[in-house]
Amino acid sequence: MRYEDIDGWLYLQVVMFMKNTILIIEDETKIARFLELELKHEGYEVEIAYDGRTGCERALKRDIALIILDLMLPGLSGIEVCRRIRRESDVPIIMLTAKDDTSDIVMGLDMGADDYVTKPFAIEELLARIRTALKRSARAQARKRDTITAGNLELSRNEYKVTYAGEEIMLSKKEFELLLYLMENKGMVLTREKILEHVWGYDFMGDTNITDVYIRYLRSKIDQRFGVQYIHTVRGVGYTFRDE
Ligand code: CA
């Protein structure tokens, strides 16, 4: 296991064992209270919003790990709440719906809700769905942290893998490190000296033209091969990586 893998794995563990805050958006106080007790019993922190508008505001606070959203809300509908939250956040959303409301379920899923439970529900089922959604979301976050993308180009630090529109690009270790450095500093002009220091190390004693040589390799493997332009020359200074 490489260091980067351990790092990713630790991150996943931390995310999983953190005390997750669940936001309940439900106007029926009885159900909201019941859910609150059950969830607290399971070790979650709980917040309740009794209407859609308040729910939206709370949801966009950063510390919410998951949302239980009742679709039957007065005023701002559950579907609308879902749509507004999804515009700004990837937080997992589990909908509570009436059993016969297939069109609402479909609309909610289309709006980006992750899952649903129909009322009346068995609490064990809801808890299982919550655990699944939290796991999936932790994995997605770990993956997001590992990957850098620019248009169709995707680089995974842990897997040492680069793809363009899903097609793998075979790079040597140095080519990979150079591309990683360029992508991490997207939009910034990097001098040859900086690139040399970062990718080959301070004590590199070889020819400084090596950066130009490796930029040429990358261009032929990415820019020229796929008819795109990510790597730009800044005359007399160095190079810059820009989004396609
Ligand atoms: Ca309701």
Structure summary:
The chain is of the alpha/beta class and 244 residues long. It has helices at 3-17, 29-41, 52-59, 78-88, 102-110, 123-146, 173-184, 192-200, 210-226, and strands spanning 21-25, 45-49, 64-70, 93-98, 115-119, 147-150, 153-156, 161-164, 167-169, 189-191, 231-234, 238-241.
Description:
By secondary structure, the protein is an alpha/beta fold. It folds into two domains: 3-146, Rossmann fold; 151-241, Winged helix-like DNA-binding domain superfamily/Winged helix DNA-binding domain (Arc Repressor Mutant, subunit A, Orthogonal Bundle), CATH 1.10.10.10. The protein is built from nine helices and twelve strands. Bound molecules: calcium ion. Calcium ion is lined by residues 26-28, 70, 72-73.
| CATH fold-level name of the largest domain | Rossmann fold
- Total tally of structural domains: 2
Mean pLDDT: 90
**What global shape is seen?**
elongated
Would you state the CATH class of the largest domain?
Alpha Beta
CATH architecture of the largest domain: 3-Layer(aba) Sandwich
Number of helices: 9
The ligands bound in this entry are:
calcium ion
Count the E strands.
Answer: 12
Query: How big a fraction of the residues is strand?
Result: 15-25%
Secondary-structure content class: alpha/beta
Distance from N terminus to C terminus (CA atoms, Å) equals 34 Å
Spatial strand arrangement across the major sheet: 2-1-3-4-5
The helix content is: 40-55%
Q: Profile the largest sheet.
A: 5 strands, parallel
Low-confidence stretches: none
Order of helices and strands: HEHEHEHEHEHEEEEHEHHEE
Q: How many whole angstroms does the radius of gyration measure?
A: 24 Å
CATH superfamily of the largest domain: Response regulator
